[in-house]
Specification:
This protein is of the alpha+beta class and about 375 residues long. The protein has helices at about 5-25, 35-40, 70-75, 120-125, 180, 215-220, 230-250, 285-300, 325-330; strands at about 40-45, 50-55, 60, 85-90, 95-100, 100, 105, 115-120, 140-150, 155-160, 165-170, 175, 190-195, 195-200, 205-210, 255-260, 275-280, 305-310, 315, 335-340. It has two domains: about 5-220, Cysteine proteinases (Cathepsin B, Chain A); about 250-365, Phosphatidylinositol 3-kinase Catalytic Subunit, Chain A, domain 1 (Ubiquitin-like (UB roll)). It is about 20% helix and about 30% strand. Strands 3, 5, 8, 9, 10, 11, 12 and 15 form an eight-stranded mixed beta sheet that branches. A five-stranded mixed beta sheet has the order 17-16-20-18-19. Strands 2-1-4 form a three-stranded antiparallel beta sheet, with no helix packed on it. Strand 1 and strand 2 (about 50-55) form a beta hairpin. This is Ubiquitin carboxyl-terminal hydrolase 13-like. InterPro entries: Papain-like_cys_pep_sf, Peptidase_C19, Peptidase_C19_UCH, USP.
């Protein structure tokens, strides 16, 4: 991301981007969309009645001597008579710029926390003005984080559609990351490696939150017929390119090595995982797709297949949309134990039931059985 260091510059660039987006929508049915998404309103001092009303598309938060986002809002709303604000309306998409840069003192790298869920109605709506609509629930969930790495470089951590999946966008490279990369690791502060202590130069400078009650309005899938005809080839080309990039990125896939009872080395209780069957599958694929691949390979119905990370740790997807990443984690290679359930108690159940599993050799299973 070719952004300069200053937080104010970043804020200006985001404002410019919103203005350009709105210009491109002028004269269309979507004109006014950026205001609807990003524009909020507040009342500012200089008098006790907060009579001066202003609009905003992003908010700057002071991080100095503040431990987290709530402390910054306290400071913003309980400031002196010249600078205090109260909010009449928060926008559906709330953009927060963390003021980590100071002209005289450089960058503030102190630890500063931000929650996955942000409740701006806390303590009886203390951040709201008297004329705010209290029927609107101002509960937000974190969508994206822009990080400054300390060397003038920026990257973004984004959660598409507010799913459990986090992606790191660093120039042309897109990688799957753990949620800790979006939260704890970007708080800043000191890190201890005894006997040394280091200050983290990489930390968040911008946060984007989405109001939970409006998630389905903001994130939706367009049908092909809703896409303008001239834009359809571009969409197809982008999707193809994205698939090619994903196929060429080794960290988009996981190698799942599957061991069965008969793979155990006699009398040792150990398995040589270099000699067992391996499957290479996309981390973002449905885990049920992986089940179907294993089912087809062995000729065993999917509802009879059981996977374990260990004897005491079964893997049980709760819904068909659960991904391989969610079920087995973000490692490049995963080792699983495979069992087949022949119990009549589980003839139709898609997930493990209570009781003892009946483990048997694959040769004992009737091929392509529908039991």
């Amino acid at each position: 991301m070719g952004l300069k260091t200053s937080t104010s510059t970043l804020q200006d660039e985001v404002k410019y981007l919103c203005e350009e987006l709105e210009k491109s929508l002028k004269g269309t049915a979507e004109e006014g969309t950026t205001q609807k998404l990003f524009e909020g309103h507040c009342r500012k001092a200089p008098d006790d009645n907060y009579t001066r009303k202003e609009s905003f598309s992003s908010l700057g938060l002071d991080v100095t001597n503040c431990k987290d986002v709530y402390a910054s809002f306290d400071k913003k709303c309980n400031g002196d008579i010249e600078s205090g604000v109260l909010f009449t309306e928060f926008p559906p998409v709330l953009q927060l710029h963390l003021s980590r840069f100071q002209n005289d003192h450089g960058k503030i790298n102190a630890r500063y926390e931000y929650p996955l869920e942000l409740d701006l109605d806390k303590e009886n709506g203390k951040y709201l003005s008297t004329d705010a609509d209290r029927s609107i629930r101002n509960l937000y969930t974190l969508h994206s984080v822009i990080v400054h790495n300390g060397d003038g470089h920026h990257f973004a951590l984004i959660r598409p559609r507010l799913s459990d999946l986090w992606l790191k966008y660093d120039n042309e490279v897109v990688k799957i990351v753990d949620v800790r990369r979006a939260l704890d690791e970007q708080y800043g502060g000191d890190e201890e490696f005894p006997p040394f202590t280091f200050t983290k130069g990489s930390n968040a400078i911008m946060l984007v939150y989405v109001r939970k009650s409006e998630k389905d309005k903001i994130f939706f899938t367009m049908d092909d017929e809703e896409i303008p005809e001239h834009a359809r080839p571009k969409k197809a080309a982008r999707l193809k390119k994205a698939e090619e990039i994903e196929d060429n990125q080794t960290d988009s896939f996981v190698i799942i090595k599957v061991a069965r009872v008969q793979d155990e080395q006699t009398g040792t209780g150990l398995v040589d995982f270099d000699k067992v069957l391996s499957f290479r599958i996309k981390k973002l694929s449905s885990f049920y797709k992986f089940l179907e691949i294993v089912s087809e390979h062995y000729g065993v119905p999917t509802h009879r297949i059981r996977f374990y990370k260990s004897q005491a740790c079964p893997i049980m997807p709760k819904k068909e949309s659960d991904t391989v990443l969610q079920m087995v984690g973000d490692s490049p290679e995963v080792r699983l134990l495979l069992q087949f359930d022949k119990s009549p108690l589980c003839a139709t159940c898609p997930c493990p039931g209570v009781g003892v599993f009946h483990v048997f050799d694959i040769e004992d299973w009737p091929r392509k059985s529908t039991m």
